[in-house]
Amino acid sequence: MELLKQVIRQKAVVRPGDVLKVDSFLNHQLDIGLLNEIGKEFYCRFRNKGITKILTIEASGIAIAAITAQYFGVPVVFAKKNHTKNLDGELLCAPVTSFTHGRTYDVTVEKKFLGPGENVLILDDFLAKGSALTGLCDIVEHSGASLGGIGIVIEKGFDVGGDLIRARGADLYSLVRIRSMTENAIVFDDEV
Ligand code: 5GP
């Protein structure tokens, strides 16, 4: 996606530890025009898949999922990172190791929001080691729903997650894939 590559080149900042800071447009301040184009792109790719629900993980996935869901006309469910007293029903849980903090925690979705008969599109901002997506795929599997596809905004092609998720047989589509990144240059894969 050319527009996304341009914005990343102009505004993203590479931090130590292979962290790409995208807080000026994707996960703190939100560029709604860009998010709309991202939503359209995911819709074009998955429109014929019979998607009935979009699943993401808080917090950064929510804006991407909410805007994309308007094109599909389906609800969004987001996996929660903290057990709160508000989660009172039966829960679907999966462990996720945070890329940025290194901590492992359970993410949860209430069973009543995901189940047999649903065809789920999973969306997230980044794919790095694949832990967040593995957790979300496991939740879909345990719920009895089917996985219609996975849409990722930025895949780090140099990390292990892409191979891990594709090996599960998932229909994974990344809008851009980064081949390498340093403080001075971000190189994208052309074919995603
Ligand atoms: P994974 O679980 O694939 O290792 O990492 C994916 C999750 O970690 C995403 O949900 C995303 O929030 C976060 N993440 C991974 N890499 C980056 C990064 O370079 N920058 C930011 N801002 N978040 C990242």
Give short descriptive properties of this protein.
single chain, 192 residues, alpha/beta, Rossmann fold, six-stranded mixed β-sheet, two-stranded antiparallel ribbon, 5 helices, 10 strands, 33% strand, globular, binds guanosine-5'-monophosphate
Descriptive notes:
The chain has 192 residues and is of the alpha/beta class. Helix content is 30%, strand content 33%. It is built from 5 helices and 10 strands; from the N terminus they run αββαβαββββαβαββ. It has helices at 2-11, 32-46, 60-72, 131-143, 161-167, and strands at residues 13-15, 19-21, 53-57, 76-79, 91-97, 104-110, 119-127, 146-156, 172-181, 186-189. The strands form 3 sheets. Strands 4-3-7-8-9-10 form a 6-stranded mixed beta sheet, sandwiched between helices. Strands 1-2 form a two-stranded antiparallel ribbon. The longest helix is centred in the N-terminal third of the chain and has 15 residues, at 32-46. The radius of gyration is 16 Å and the shape is globular. The mean pLDDT is 95. Guanosine-5'-monophosphate is lined by residues 19-20, 22, 27, 57, 60, 99-100, 124-133, 161. Guanosine-5'-monophosphate (5GP) binds at residues 19-20, 22, 27, 57, 60, 99-100, 124-133, 161.
Write a brief structural summary.
The protein has one domain: Rossmann fold (3-Layer(aba) Sandwich), CATH 3.40.50. 30% of the residues lie in helices and 33% in strands.
